[in-house]
Amino acid sequence: MTLESLRNDIDALDDQLLTLLNKRMELVRKVGELKRSTNTVIYRPEREKQILDRLDEQNNGLLNRPAIEAIFLEIFAVSRNLELPERVAYLG
Ligand code: PRE
User: Fold this and answer.
1) How high is the ipTM of this complex?
2) What is the helix (H) or strand (E) element at residue 38, kind and residue range?
């Protein structure tokens, strides 16, 4: 197990994470379209908490609850932004 081989494995996993995150964002964009057509609020803290609780419950890896929250709260923030109408949305 060399540093280079470990980094290669990390790169491969990062590629998969990026693919999955982009797939999630495609679904989120559809949620945004649905919400706009039905005039529903974008920010749903109770749904975000439900997701965090579920992930924490089924987690059996090295990540603890604060780490899961740190990662997913960032994902939710990007998701909410993606649900905004195009003229006010930003991705950076
Ligand atoms: C999502 C995004 C924003 C909401 O605050 C809650 C959850 C998410 O990223 O999972 C999706 C969504 O808009 C929703 O489930 O209502």
Assistant:
1) 0.99
2) helix 3-38
